[in-house]
What we know:
Largest sheet: 5 strands, mixed
Strand content: 5-15%
Low-confidence stretches: none
Number of helices: 18
Number of strands: 10
Order of helices and strands: HHEEHEHHHHHEHHHHHHHHEEEEHHEE
Amino acid sequence: MSVLYDPNDPALAADRFAYYKRLREADPVHEIAAGYWLLTRYDDVEALLRSPHSSSAFPKDPGWAMSRGGPTCPAMRSVSKWLLLQDGAEHRRLRKLIARVFTPRYIDRLRPRIGEIVDGLLDSMGEGEVDLIRDLALPMPVAVVGELLGIPVEDRARCRDWTDKVGYILDPDVTPRRRIAMNKAEPEFRAYLLDLMASRRGADPDHDLLSVLMTAEDDEQLTEEEVVANILLIFNAGHETTVNLIGNGMLALLRQPEALEALRADPGLMATAVDELSRFDPPVTLSSRIATAEMEFGGKVIPPGSHVIGFLDAAGRDPERYPDPDRLDLSRTEPRTLAFSAGPHFCLGAVLGRLEAATVFSKLLERYTKIELLREDLPVNSHFNLHGLLELPLRLSR
């Protein structure tokens, strides 16, 4: 077996799109070890996400659990109740309840508030040299998801720190240092949220997700552990992916200025532009599944029990599905981006994430006539499956 993929290869870090292009052309359904397979074509990745024979229940896999501290450690107790890692009836039960605050109508009610948050941050930024991640892309979604979930303003920074540490549990490999950090952070977050829930019992419920989960009817009621686990998941996912979508998207626009100017000239492109930006440099790089039955991709048979990884950034640059895939085409509409997943686990927060990104890009272009990238050597985060910038230094002029 010839191995064409090494996650520690410097070439992957230097240009992952070129790296996946070579892999897709050489062996698009690639076995890297017994029971581990990689998919890099759009059609194969989409089929994996939609297949009834692909499971997200990684906490039930003994090897996966042991590499994160074992099935009884704090982080594993939490992750075993996450909506993201459930299948079948359990997944449908959780999704139905949580989806109540992710409907297009409910999210549209947030539109004015999101605009206010972005305007306030832009007022603070002003003109001149700024860091778009620190000054806008990070604080905006943290504020929005905090309000959506019902987390008090003064506690959001702590919650972000806790949930960021636990979020590393989804990376393919978890280092000992991160394993210790996530298993320390989860009990601290759990204790905080249980105290918050206790303080709100008996009070008039708000319209936030914490209230929805706490006041569910008997036949839908979640346990306290289920509530805590899924608030943790959504707080992390609700800001991390949006930070990446905004940062990666703005960098792509600055590197292909003809696309930036097209968007400035025609704001009506914004709806398709956000999806195109998510295709071009997705905030989430991969999605993994466990095969529950024999699966076939590209004439290769994958046996039950195998771990199958679909690379979303590779699928988004597949020339068989996207003509001229390395060009940013803001009017591109087909096929639909896989950046928000597909099938049963299509992202509940997709509508919100698109709205947040569109609001940021629209208001930046309205307020500033010139947006310049100050340097090209930009640090990225240390997540493997969440690719985003730690800094985006810009010079802004009105």
